[in-house]
Specification:
alpha/beta, Metallo-beta-lactamase, Chain A, seven-stranded mixed sheet, 11 helices, 16 strands, about 35% helix, RibonucZ/Hydroxyglut_hydro, Competence_DNA_uptake, ComEC family competence protein
């Protein structure tokens, strides 16, 4: 009987240890970014790419730690609830919300939330400094301008909006800096190309840098701007992580991405686009895979650490 009780006790202890070990491993895994690194939430930041709830291409990133939440874009209006859930995990406070340009798949969710914030507080908003009157007059070759009009109506009198300009260097939070290489200005007007795709080509090209590494966001800039931006900022765009331009389609050249030199690339699109040979994104994805790691919506949420 004593041996039986001893065996039962040993088995119980082993079971507890096994369960504790599994729980510890699960906890550690939940803290890892997509590269296997566990960020220090006190001194490092987690950059996270999210798939859009609509199931199509869109852009929504967060940069966060214990004290800070920065949002880039937010995706379609149908993604607003998903964005709200992320914000709720950060005490319903957004320290900085960057809108690369007011297209549906970038600013739709922002418009919904800003119009009805509930308990959400947005401390600072950054946009690309559009000349809205110009866009109204020039029109839009591919998308309607209702999201742009709504964004402008909601934010035009807000005191917490900064219209970013080419060459800006802004302290975002902690030791993070925002460096701007493209925004609405005369350089876009003179380089925009025959398609006159002002909204996409005036979207922000910017780098967010920590003390040790950085990520370059290419937004929806298309091939028209490639030569100008590469020629002007070749020595400034080097980075560790990169968001592919225009969801991987009809954007920057291989030379541009090689100059950036990122080891990790993000394409803001589902695999129905990134693995479809009918889209340039599939070729770009293959090119990125030869040099490093590529993330798209098929594995989202995807995350890396900004140090």
């Amino acid at each position: 009987m004593k041996k039986k009780n001893l065996l039962s006790t040993i088995l119980l202890i082993l079971s507890v240890l096994l369960l504790s070990g599994a729980a510890w491993f699960s906890y550690q895994k939940s803290r890892m970014d997509s590269t296997g690194h566990i960020p220090d939430p006190a001194t490092e930041y987690l950059i996270t790419q999210y798939a859009d709830a609509t199931g199509v291409q869109g852009t929504f990133y967060t940069i966060s730690n214990n004290d800070t939440l920065i949002i880039i874009d937010g995706g379609w209006a149908g993604n607003a609830d998903a964005v709200r859930k992320v914000i709720a995990k950060h005490n319903n406070t957004v320290d900085a919300w960057i809108i690369s340009h007011p297209h549906q798949d970038h600013a739709g969710a922002f418009n919904v939330i800003y119009a009805n914030p509930g308990e959400i507080t947005i401390k600072n908003i950054y946009d690309n400094g559009f000349d809205y009157d110009f866009i109204e007059a020039a029109g839009e070759p591919y998308d309607d301008i209702t999201v742009m009009e709504t964004f402008h109506a909601l934010t035009k009198d807000a005191g917490n909006v900064t219209h970013l300009k080419r060459g800006d260097n802004i302290a975002l939070a902690g030791d993070l800096t925002l460096s701007v290489f493209n925004a609405w200005d005369e350089s876009v007007l003179s380089t925009v190309g025959d398609e006159k795709d002002y909204q996409n080509n005036a979207s922000l090209l910017f780098k967010i840098s920590g003390a040790q590494n950085s990520m370059l966001f290419c937004s929806d800039i298309k091939y028209d701007m490639n030569d100008y931006l590469l020629g002007t900022y070749r020595n400034d765009i080097s980075c560790d992580y990169i968001q592919a331009g225009h969801h991987g389609n009809w954007s920057f050249s291989d030379e541009f991405y090689e100059a950036a030199g990122a080891s990790y690339a993000f394409i803001d699109a589902p695999s129905s686009i990134t693995d479809n040979p009918d889209f340039p994104a599939s070729t770009l994805k293959s090119s990125f895979q030869k040099k490093g790691t590529v993330f798209d919506f098929s594995t989202a949420p995807n995350s890396v650490t900004l140090k």
